[in-house]
Amino acid sequence: MTDMPALSNLSAIDAAHHLHPFSDMKKLNAAGTRIIDRAEGVYIFDSTGRMYLDAFAGLWCVNVGYGRKEISDAAYRQMQDLPYYNTFFGTTTPPATLLAQKIASHAGGKLNRVFFTNSGSEANDTWFRMARVYWRALGKPEKTQVIARRNAYHGSTVAGASLGGMKWMHEQGNLPIAGISHINQPYWYAEGGDLTPAEFGLKVARELEERIEELGEDNVAAFVAEPIQGAGGVIIPPDTYWPEIARICRERNVLLVSDEVICGFGRLGTWFGHQHYGVEPDLAPIAKGLSSGYLPIGGVMVSDRVADVMVEELGDFYHGFTYSGHPVCAAAALENLRIIEEEGLVERVRDDIGPYFAAAWKSLEDHEVVGEAESVGLMGGLQLAADKSTRRRYAKPDDIGTLVRNHCIDNGLIMRATGDRMLASPALTISRAEVDEVTDKLRKALDHLRDTVRE
Ligand code: PXG
């Protein structure tokens, strides 16, 4: 790039002009931003040349790893042929159509159609409107209420943040908007009390049935959940949870929405997270791994049940984005999915690197500050505990998680902490040696916590 100021100046320019997402800008400006300017495989490099193993795949998204020239070539070619055209007024572009077909081919079952968006947040706003127009088209306009979960994350748009169950997000925007309510999450370690995980899974699933009773079945449009909560802390539900949720949605005639933004595209060793849990959603927002983050693109996978009504009964759906099905993003996504297929990355996670990661991650459970270390595929959540025998947590969970995370980063490992849980979600291409590097560095950070904090 010409005209690029010296990297050393970027921090000051950033502080002067750039407001970052989910950031305390005063603190960030004082500390200075870390400038990332290069990446290869599972490693990222900062402007001082330091290398970090990115155990978080960017933001849960770089599923095929960094530096895939095939994807940039595909985007470049598409940009030269047709950089943009819309999908609104009776037109489409080859990549948009072929991508919809490709996604449907992996969704299996009845998710045969896709509506494109630019992000996971927009995907959640989109199904939220779809669910309501679906019931309206069926002559049930009063079926509008949506049930979601506490500590869920579904994005930062007004509907996305409302569907999410993050209290501090609600407080900043007078959210949730009307028509959305929340039930408890299947977080056994923190909230399961004396119940076994299996009992607790059933108990919190049945809160859905109770809420439907309270609201009245004729008023409830949909229930939404992530197969495994991501930003909420990689909360892996007990095995009893999902089948019971699916039963309730089926019997109560409520649409089941599986938010696949993180769990989709191989993360759990299946193409989509709901396949891991053996349930069939009616709607499924997607993003992130769809393009491995190389370009922004998302969408909603729509089942025949909903699509048939939209196609046959609805007429116009007054909804869409200038860049719905953007040809360059779609071309990049197609190439990304080709790589996942050709390299067998979903099978690799299921049969090879996923089990290897699971054993390495689980081995951290012998550490005295670890309450549990669980994973599915390449998605791991590790619970820090002040007293593992009683499941007692540290008094200041955010500080504890941040301490461990910062130790990891200082030692060349990018991890994410949610409160007192450590989260990993590396590229599906990570090698065994690189998995060992993740757990070795995390173990050192756990030692640091044990040696510096007494409670
Ligand atoms: N649904 C889920 C399940 C997500 O994880 C979104 C929707 C929204 O997607 P977009 O593309 O609009 O960001 C997400 C996004 C974190 C973190 O710190 C997680 C997300 C985004 C940013 C940060 O864990 N997830």
TrEMBL record:
Its cofactor is pyridoxal 5'-phosphate. InterPro entries: Aminotrans_3, Aminotrans_3_PPA_site, PyrdxlP-dep_Trfase, PyrdxlP-dep_Trfase_major, PyrdxlP-dep_Trfase_small. Pfam families: Aminotran_3 (PF00202). It comes from the Bacteria. Keywords: Aminotransferase, Pyridoxal phosphate, Transferase. The keyword ATP-binding does not apply. The keyword DNA repair does not apply. SUPFAM superfamilies: PLP-dependent transferases (SSF53383). CDD domains: OAT_like. GO terms for molecular function: transaminase activity. Belongs to the class-III pyridoxal-phosphate-dependent aminotransferase family. This is Aspartate aminotransferase family protein. The lineage of its organism: Bacteria, Pseudomonadati, Pseudomonadota, Alphaproteobacteria, Hyphomicrobiales.
